[in-house]
User: Which sequence fits this backbone?
């Protein structure tokens, strides 16, 4: 029997009935009408005729952190990028790519190149990594996170690779948040590259922007700034200082302040015809927020295998739990799954938001409470402040769905 959650919304007798891939509304619904809607939804989602699915191509996945080196000194950096300058040997990257396919039968590779530093500072290495991956797999999807300070040669290469890109840019707060290591502004370079990528049909571009305590009141200004560059997809993330961050907790926005600002940004994005990846509103499913417990394999420049980019050095807090393998003798050797991280069905089993928030980011919870996994107070507060208001707004203003929803499987009644 598939799960169904009933979420009370803003106003009297307004509800969202949430199930796998579906949101059905009961507005101004009496108790009997609500019960009828729930029973109808149970019948739909548990219909055996709807349970089949097509098997797609076999896909392998690996994430590499090419370097800890960085040319920026971002105010809030979670990884202390640039404090050390380790670079991954190409031989190590090749081993990780070959070992990404346990069965040796996969046709496609999802290759992720992530931060910890700035991957494209070592462009020759990145290019060689991608070339090798393409020589091994029939097809490769390149997913890359960058600070956007690369030169024109790199820009042309990214277009040629048809990369899926996330470029970090903080809009009106960028100069304060993301200077070069000599404290000069990186804004002009980043803006120029974003404009060039946004005007290209060859790449998929999302701009990700970190919202600090000082920046939360200017989130709509930042959205206007990003929109002016031709960008149509934005991801806002709250600054969340940890034990390994460059900045302190004074940078963090309040949870309710962030939730309200994000809600305003979503409505503003609708006026700008933009899409917004909130990180706090996911496609309804009984899945988990991320694959930290089982599927994540992230290779550090030192050849260690971690479950999360936020724990990438052997002396990082919780490295004894989050790291679970190594590259050794041309083999990728991994340990067992991380028990207890997928806590949403255990800790959140009585929460009616769990099918949308999926328990939230496990590292939020680990940084806040350690082990055993509980629930991040910050993330939980954001979800409870944001989701009932957002779900109601989606019901009365269907155009808003274009901002936060891509999947046609959502059902609005």
Assistant:
């Amino acid at each position: 029997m598939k799960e169904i959650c009933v979420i009370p919304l803003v106003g009297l007798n307004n509800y969202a009935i949430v199930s796998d891939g579906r949101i059905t509304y009961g507005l101004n619904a009496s108790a009997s009408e609500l019960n009828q809607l729930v029973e109808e939804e149970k019948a739909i989602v548990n219909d055996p005729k709807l349970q089949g699915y097509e098997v797609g191509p076999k896909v392998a996945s690996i994430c590499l952190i090419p370097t800890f080196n960085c040319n920026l000194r971002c105010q809030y950096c979670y990884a202390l990028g640039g404090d050390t300058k380790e670079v991954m040997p190409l031989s190590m990257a090749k081993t990780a790519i070959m070992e990404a396919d346990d069965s040796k039968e996969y046709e496609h590779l999802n290759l992720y190149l992530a931060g910890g530093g700035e991957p494209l500072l070592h462009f020759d290495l990145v290019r060689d990594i991608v070339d090798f991956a393409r020589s091994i797999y029939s097809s490769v999807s390149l997913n890359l996170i960058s600070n956007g300070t690369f030169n024109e040669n790199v820009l042309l290469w990214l277009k040629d690779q048809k990369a899926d890109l996330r470029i970090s840019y903080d809009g009106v707060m960028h100069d304060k948040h993301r200077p070069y290591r000599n404290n000069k502004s990186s804004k002009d370079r980043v803006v120029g590259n974003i404009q060039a990528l946004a005007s290209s049909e060859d790449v998929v571009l999302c701009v990700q922007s970190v919202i600090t305590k000082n920046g939360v009141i200017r989130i709509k200004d930042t959205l206007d700034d990003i929109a002016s560059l031709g960008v149509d997809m934005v991801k806002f993330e709250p600054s969340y200082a940890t034990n390994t961050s460059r900045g302190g907790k004074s940078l963090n926005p309040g949870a309710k302040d962030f939730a309200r600002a994000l809600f305003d940004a979503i409505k503003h994005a609708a006026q700008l015809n933009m899409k917004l990846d909130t990180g706090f509103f996911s496609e309804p499913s009984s899945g988990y927020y991320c694959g930290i417990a089982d599927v994540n394999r992230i290779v550090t420049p030192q050849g260690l295998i971690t479950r999360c980019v936020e724990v990438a050095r052997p002396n990082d807090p919780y490295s004894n739990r989050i790291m679970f393998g190594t590259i050794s003798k041309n083999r990728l050797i991994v340990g067992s799954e991380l028990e207890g991280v997928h806590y949403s069905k255990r800790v959140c089993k009585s929460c009616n938001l769990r099918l949308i928030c999926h328990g939230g980011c496990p590292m939020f919870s680990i940084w806040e409470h350690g082990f055993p996994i509980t629930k991040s107070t910050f993330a939980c507060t954001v979800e409870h402040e944001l989701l009932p208001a957002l779900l109601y707004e989606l019901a009365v203003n269907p155009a808003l769905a274009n901002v936060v929803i891509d999947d046609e499987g959502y059902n609005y009644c």
User: Anything to note?
Assistant: Residues 59-277 form a domain with the TIM Barrel fold (CATH 3.20.20.70). The radius of gyration is 22 Å. Confidence is low (pLDDT under 50) at residues 407-413.
